[in-house]
UniProtKB/TrEMBL annotation:
SUPFAM superfamilies: PRC-barrel domain (SSF50346)
Protein name: PRC-barrel domain-containing protein
Gene3D superfamilies reported for this sequence: Photosynthetic Reaction Center, subunit H, domain 2
Domain PRC-barrel: 23-94
InterPro entries cross-referenced by the UniProt entry: Bac_photo_RC_H_C (IPR014747), PRC-brl_dom (IPR027275), PRC_barrel-like_sf (IPR011033)
Membrane spanning stretches: none
Species per Swiss-Prot/TrEMBL record: Kribbella deserti
């Protein structure tokens, strides 16, 4: 896919799409870093409507009842494993904490807006030639 053909990402709950397998719905699960430390919870899933694939996880941390929380986007490429209540990623919590903040009120939610996110986490953007969807294991 070249840069002119980049698909638009959408939050799953803003679409009429559903996940084929309810076990793939990781919203609400705790995200833990490479050492097992809690980072936050999966708030939302960003999907590529054209290919019907989850591309980014929206993580919320801190705050009380959603007030004062910080939102981060993490590419699905960082996910190493998923179990019944946790999503494991290959990043350290300090690295995630210093990463780009996501403000849903300001975002246009187009892939070019997410280049910094992919770059920060060392992931290949999904719209680049040769990209392969990541594999992770279930516990």
């Amino acid at each position: 896919m070249n840069e002119q053909q980049q698909p638009t990402l959408e939050r799953l709950e803003d679409t009429d799409l559903t996940l084929a397998d309810l076990a793939d719905d990781i919203r609400g699960r705790t995200v833990v870093d490479s050492s097992g430390e809690e980072i936050g919870k999966v708030d939302s899933l960003f999907i590529d409507r054209d290919e019907r694939r989850v591309r980014l996880l929206q993580i919320s941390s801190g705050g009380i009842l959603g007030i004062g929380d910080s939102k981060k986007l993490i590419p699905v490429d960082a996910v190493t494993a998923v179990d019944d209540d946790k999503v494991h990623i290959d990043q350290h919590h300090e690295h995630v904490a210093k990463g780009p903040v996501y403000d849903p009120d300001l975002a246009r939610e187009e892939p070019q807006d997410f280049v910094d996110v992919y770059s920060y986490y060392g992931a290949t953007p999904f719209w680049t030639p040769g990209y392969m969807y990541p594999r992770y294991h279930r516990h």
